[in-house]
Amino acid sequence: MGGKILIVDDEKLMRISLESQLKKEGYYVKSIDNAVDGLKIVKTGEYDIVVTDLRLSGMSGIDFLKEIKKYDQEIIVVIMTAYGTLESAVSAIKEGAYDYIAKPFSTDELIIKLQRALHHKNTAAEVNRLRKEVQAEFEFCNIIGNSEAMKRVLETVKSVSGRDTTVLLRGESGTGKEKIAGAIHYHSNRRTGPFIRVSCAALNREILESELFGHERGAFTGAVKTRRGRFELANGGSIFLDDVDDIPLDMQVKLLRVLQERAFERVGGEETLCVDVRIICATKKDLLEQVKEGCFREDLFYRLNVVPINIPPLRERKEDIPLLINYFLKKYVSQYEDALPDVSQDALNALFAYNWPGNVRELENVIEHAVAFSESKGISLETLPEYLRRIDIHADLLSMDLSNKQTISLQETLTEVEKKLIQWAHQKANGNQVKMAELLGVPRTTLRNRLIKLQLFEKAL
Ligand SMILES: Nc1ncnc2c1ncn2[C@@H]1O[C@H](COP(=O)(O)OP(=O)(O)OP(=O)(O)O)[C@@H](O)[C@H]1O
Ligand SMILES: [Mg+2]
Fold first, then answer.
1. What percentage of the chain carries pLDDT values higher than 90?
2. Which atom of ligand 1 sits closest to the CA of residue 243?
3. pLDDT in tens, 114-151
4. What kind of architecture, by CATH, is found in domain 314-389?
5. Given 3.40.50.300, 3.40.1550.10, 1.10.10.60, 3.10.100.10, which CATH number is that of 410-460?
6. Which of 395, 180, 219, 133 has the alpha carbon at shortest distance from 307?
7. Which of 175, 197, 245, 363 most suits a substitution to test ligand 1, by most atoms within 8 Å of the C-beta?
8. What is the pLDDT of residues 371-402, one digit of tens each?
9. Span from the CA of 172 to the centroid of ligand 2 (angstroms)
10. Ligand 2 centre distance from Cα of residue 12 (Å)
11. What angle do CA 407, 410, 411 make, to 5 degrees?
12. How far is the C-alpha of 167 from the C-alpha of 177, rounded, in Å?
């Protein structure tokens, strides 16, 4: 494993011998006799590791170290100390040196340290890169939605993330519950702590309990060693309990205690463990309904329902579809393409007409599919999956989801329906008003009056 190493030492012999031996081992090495020039070289940003003596002329080794760390936290610094000056090595480590080596040392000794340091640096860089990637995924700007409903959801998410409150996310499959849970965690003070996800639906009873709370060795057959549960792993961060309604009734008591006291015991354990976690839950069901049916504890429900966030299904916020299409096109179109592909009108019509039972996840899959089949010719109806091509785009013209409505304004609803019918005629007649009037069975003057009243196609008038 090669790497770029800078050696700083005012002993000429030491420099020459280290440089030649490390070069033989395949490292790229440069050596210099003073810290001032050393710092200039460090600032080229090319070096992975600086191996420096602590006693230097001009600038002390410790000051040199501080300057390096000011410039770049990630450069690894290994200190060479004279025999018997361990205290200075200790203070160097406190200032951020990665390791030290006492003179005199063999090259092999140094090489072992360098290999370890390089490995550490690569892993740290990788972890950093992954963390940034994960965080970017959960940035607010990556939660797409401009509909009133989604704006409200985002406002709540923003205002609640900074606090430690328990959050209950409700929404159908694919509406973005996990994404929003992640956004809450990554915008909280716990963002550098762990974000642990548990799908309560995917695990059977025994596994779920030991998964959540851990188990002691010998707690059950197969428990060959003590295992920490997800609550312990989430300490200092957040835990996301997906499909929380699937937790069996008797285990709900244990969860309630965690919510109240942040305390629990491992399966088969006596010791009470305390954790500092923020709890975010998600459910596809109506939890209150579950309470009424006796499958969910009422006290637990109230504990979880401190801040409920309802994520509406995509069919109730179709105005978000264009933004989402654009977002997913950017995600799936190769970064080497110059521009995003065009989406044809009939493809758009089909995407609008569909009622998206799988919500945003389904739309994402459809766009990924379309990009794969578009061969950079743009998204046309033919690039959509078969089942979407068959949809009659006017099939849902008059269908409305009334299940979640408390009240309905007859006037507003009739106006909506009228608008849809006029739009239908407009499309079918290619904007020709004589034909539109014919299609709708009304005199042309009536149509014109309605168009003015409803402020439709004003440019065409
Ligand atoms: N508003 C959004 N903006 C951008 N991407 C979204 C949005 N909502 C969901 N997604 C994407 O859709 C996919 C499904 O989202 P997620 O996994 O969060 O849904 P879910 O509600 O947890 O689904 P399930 O209930 O099936 O677990 C993910 O790839 C996610 O990134
Ligand atoms: Mg999910």
1. 63
2. 25
3. 999 999 888 888 888 888 888 888 888 899 999 999 99
4. Orthogonal Bundle (1.10)
5. 1.10.10.60
6. 180
7. 175
8. 988 877 789 989 999 888 876 555 555 666 66
9. 9
10. 62
11. 130
12. 11
